Amino acid sequence: MKIDPRTVGAQVRMRTPSLTPLEARVVDTMTGRADLDLTTSLREVAEEAGVSDAMIVKIAKKLGFNGYRDFREALVEYRQSDVASLHAEISPEDSAADIVRKVFNTAVQALEETMSILDMEAFERAAALLHRARNRDFYGLGGSAQIARDVAHKFLRIGLRANVQDDAHMMLMSASLLGPEDVVVAFSHSGATSAVLEATRLARANGARTIALTNYSNAPLAEIADVTLCSTAQGSPLLGENAAARIAQLNIMDAIFVAVAQRDFPTAEARLAKTMRSIGGKRDK
Questions:
Q1: Where is the SIS domain (predicted)?
Q2: Are the C-beta atoms of 163 and 136 separated by less than 8 Å?
């Protein structure tokens, strides 16, 4: 089956952290070639990177491709796609309009690529687990905690309570009390945040089901979770990749919220009306 060109950039970014520094440098060399096309030879790339032909083939396979030719073709097609053209670096000379366009396009790219790689089976499993859970504990630090708070707020609107823990000690205490009927959603862009990892391991050891939301499919957090949902975003020296990735993760969780509500729509609708009435008088006229 032919690969969707929109997934290529995400596939490379998600697997690059598993490469050695040398291998990552070789990938940067290849992806940084503006003249890369279907005629670019293996020898040419290897000489430019200062490695053997075999090393290039090995790296291509570690990134999920059949070999150099498969990687080269996929990369060329990706560069020709509308999604790849969305990203542009911000420069000191940019006008306000340029900045807005580039920032918005980076977010659009993150959404398009995340949607293209989203594992629908994992998505459905996550929705099912959250719907039937007794307790829903959300773990995250910094920006990840903000995503957790956003989705916890949405769940409360339809009568599903969720606990947000953004402190290492609170996460561990929470995890120590969970059991087989409970679910943890662990938010970590890198998938390697030690406090989140430790608490998620403890929750799973106590029988709780675990869902990871991360930017890297082979991150430590993804390896210990029952279900993994991946976002993806292209890095930028000024914005970083976290900003765009947060937008993608918020959208994943918005979709999860809708999927959970849909499982008992009449009840969700009734509870939504009830919670909205409770704050109706508090809104500014």
A1: 126-266
A2: yes
The domains of the chain, with CATH numbers, are 6-81 (1.10.10.10), 117-280 (3.40.50.10490)
Question: Which amino acid appears at position 146 of this protein?
Answer: Q
CB-CB contact of 14 with 215 (8 Å): yes
Closest among 11, 45, 44 to 30, alpha carbons compared: 45
Contact 192, 220 (CB under 8 A): yes
> In angstroms, what CA-CA distances link 33 with 28, 55, 102, 210?
9, 18, 22, 40
**Chain segment 158-181, per-residue pLDDT in tens:** 999 999 999 999 999 999 999 999
Q: Each residue of 233-285: pLDDT tens digit?
A: 776 655 555 678 889 999 999 999 999 999 999 999 999 999 999 887 666 55
Among the residues of 50-133, which ranges form H helices? 53-62, 68-80, 96-117, 120-132
**Measured distance CA(19)–CA(32) in Å, rounded:** 17
Confidence (pTM): 0.83
In which residue are the tokens 């053209």 written?
85
E strand segments, the chain? 136-139, 163-165, 183-188, 209-214, 227-230
Query: In the structure encoding, which two tokens stand for residue 169, read together?
Result: 């000690």
Q: Which amino acid is at 79?
A: R
